[in-house]
Amino acid sequence: MSQWLTILGSTGSIGCSTLDVVRRHPDRYRVYALTAARRAEDMLAQIAEFSPRFAVMTDAEAAESVRAGLPSDATTQVLAGADALIDVASAAEVDQVMAAIVGAAGLLPTLAAAEAGKRVLLANKESLVMAGPLFMEAIRRGGAELLPIDSEHNAIFQSMPADYAGDLSEKGIRKILLTASGGPFRGRTSEALKDVTPSQAVAHPNWSMGAKISVDSATLMNKGLELIEACFLFNCQADDVQVVVHPESVIHSMVQYCDGSVLAQLGQPDMRTPIAYGMAWPERIEAGVASLDLFEIARLNFEAADEETFPCLGLAKQAFAAGGTMPAVLNAANEVAVDAFLQEQIPFNDIPTLIARVMSEHRPVAADDIETILSADAWARSRARETIAEVSQ
Ligand code: NAD
Ligand code: MG
């Protein structure tokens, strides 16, 4: 029987890769809903190919354009607004939800999918960073299945015992080794990063991704968010996770055991591998990804992360240690800072400075409910924007 799938953020990089896996397995997967923010043309092309029951555009004007562009015999119903994301993520007919909206905007629909007991394919790491304990509790309460799609976390999941239940030592696990490519600016000094441009920052050496995560990879905030993501997903402490810079991005992460074994998952830097893994788990399906040619790769390199030049990794560790609402504040300040950098309002090195400043003004409180988390997020966004305005005067 085929599985019904909702893809939150279907026009993005992960969304398109997910649809490519669906395209290869029309007998296994059917699209219930596709969602996007603004790109009506892209959505129309996806509707024409996949005939989802619903298409959601969070932007009302874009929803109008999609309605106007649909052929008269189309069966897809077009909905507008962020509330509709929650409906299509939690609808009774849906089996799996790919959470691939970028940033905090993904939190509520992803949480809704968890509460509704879906298989949650989690790419949207920001929602876990903001609301880790609440999100993991929603997964448990809803009886949902959480499959990590972020390549590192997918690799860790694959390298862990199948019956891992949230206790590293019970399974003889000594450490999680979280690999990082180091991004486009690996090896540079802080001085050399002063004048880097958005187009240099989004030019990732190994992965093709959306603009926001590409900048996060360049600042190492992506690894910071992933460290927090790993701690929530696998119920461990920051000290249990070691960041290992591995510029070739062939090993996607590793698990080190007490007997000296290290288990790793290797593969091409192609997100269709973790996506197909998550969709078909515990089976494996064709993902359209070429096999690794180890002779061509020939060498793998490893080094420590340069936390002095790239302070965002340390800021993420601080935020996780502070706990409560601090990770949500880190995430929100980062989203504003990255956006300002992409719009050439602030230089690259101001991204960590701005985040550190907003964090220093925040007294974390327990993040037990969604309102508290959303208000910390809103506060951090407005403080970050005010700070940018003050500095640029
Ligand atoms: P992207 O920018 O390419 O796509 C984002 C998608 O979200 C688009 O469909 C867009 O329409 C939608 N969207 C954006 N803002 C929205 C809003 N306010 N409300 C509703 N929808 C909105 O991003 P991406 O690279 O595909 O990344 C998506 C998520 O997956 C991110 O959280 C990222 O960290 C994570 N991720 C991505 C990759 C990758 O290779 N691209 C790898 C690991 C994790
Ligand atoms: Mg990753």
Structural features:
single chain, 393 residues, alpha/beta, Rossmann fold, Rna Polymerase Sigma Factor, Chain: A, 3 domains, binds nicotinamide-adenine-dinucleotide
Describe this structure as you would to a colleague.
- With 393 residues, the chain is an alpha/beta fold.
- It folds into three domains: 3-149, Rossmann fold (3-Layer(aba) Sandwich); 163-269 and 304-321, no CATH class; 323-393, Rna Polymerase Sigma Factor, Chain: A (Orthogonal Bundle).
- It has 16 helices and eleven strands.
- The chain has a seven-stranded parallel β-sheet, sandwiched between helices. Strands 9-8-10-11 form a four-stranded mixed β-sheet, with helices on one face.
- Strand 5, helix 5 and strand 6 (119-122) form a beta-alpha-beta unit.
- Nicotinamide-adenine-dinucleotide (NAD) binds at residues 9-15, 36-37, 39, 58, 100-102, 105, 123-126, 150, 207, 209-210, 213, 271.
- The site of magnesium ion has 4 residues, from helix 7.
Any chance you could write out the topology, listing elements then pairs?
Blueprint: E1 3-8, H1 13-24, E2 29-36, H2 40-50, E3 54-57, H3 60-69, E4 77-80, H4 83-90, E5 96-99, H5 107-115, E6 119-122, H6 125-142, E7 145-148, H7 151-159, E8 173-180, H8 198-201, H9 211-219, H10 221-233, E9 241-245, E10 251-257, E11 262-266, H11 272-280, H12 294-297, H13 312-322, H14 326-342, H15 350-360, H16 370-391
Parallel strand pairs: 1-2, 1-5, 2-3, 3-4, 5-6, 6-7, 8-9
Antiparallel strand pairs: 8-10, 10-11
Helix pairs in contact: 2-3, 4-5, 5-6, 6-10, 6-14, 9-14, 10-13, 13-14, 14-15, 14-16, 15-16
The protein binds nicotinamide-adenine-dinucleotide and magnesium ion (MG).
